[in-house]
Amino acid sequence: MASILENRGVAIFLCLMFAWFKVSNGDVYKVGDSAGWTIIGNVDYKQWAVTKTFQVGDVIVFEYNPQFHNVMQVTHAEYRACNVSSPISTHTTGNDSITIDTYGHHLFVCGVPGHCQAGQKVDINVLRAPSLAPSPSSEVPSPVPTVTVPAPSRSDAVTLCALMQTISFPQWQYNLER
Ligand SMILES: [Cu+2]
């Protein structure tokens, strides 16, 4: 049987890799997937967005032909009205990576006349992690240390590494896989 120390060494390595990945790289989402950012094919960007769980740190990639499209971040009212007269920001490279660094709605439209109206608009909504974890303080302490990570995030990954030092490897592995 491999020594516990050996297992722990592997665990620490995997944990650090995991933490590094979560801290330095959010998930990358290409808007419209293979279709990209377009008006061809009537891509349902609303449907595309609601099937994703965006988190702070994620990168949203708009891929398009810059001769025909662009990306403008707009306010809620502008989004609804397809008003592109005063965008928050404008992206025009054809391969725009936008890192989402705040919670809430991030609203993007194409600024080419008629395109937003044709459906080239997307709402990247970053929800706050739900506070599902019941408070354990009032309950009878469990003899086995349990670690619940309700919604792993960047900082949770780091916390996980710290917690790992206090719990056995199989438990940690289980929790990592959640
Ligand atoms: Cu367009």
What can you see in these coordinates?
- This protein is of the alpha+beta class.
- The chain folds into two domains: 4-24 and 132-176, no CATH class; 31-126, Cupredoxins -  blue copper proteins (Immunoglobulin-like).
- It contains five helices and seven strands; from the N terminus they run H-E-H-E-E-H-E-E-E-E-H-H.
- The protein has helices at residues 4-24, 45-50, 76-81, 154-164, 169-176, and strands at 28-30, 59-63, 71-74, 89-91, 95-99, 104-109, 121-126.
- The strands form two sheets. It has a four-stranded antiparallel beta sheet with strand order 4-3-6-7. A three-stranded mixed beta sheet has the order 1-2-5, with no helix packed on it.
- Helix 2 (45-50) links the parallel strand 1 and strand 2.
- Helix 1 packs parallel to helix 5 (169-176).
- The chain is globular and about 60 Å long.
- The protein binds copper (II) ion (CU).
- Copper (II) ion is lined by residues 39, 69, 110, 112, 115, 120.
- Copper (II) ion (CU) is lined by residues 39, 69, 110, 112, 115, 120.
Strands, helices and their partners?
Blueprint: H1 4-24, E1 28-30, H2 45-50, E2 59-63, E3 71-74, H3 76-81, E4 89-91, E5 95-99, E6 104-109, E7 121-126, H4 154-164, H5 169-176
Helix pairs in contact: 1-4, 1-5
Pfam family, one: Cu_bind_like
Signal peptide: 1-26
Protein name: Phytocyanin domain-containing protein
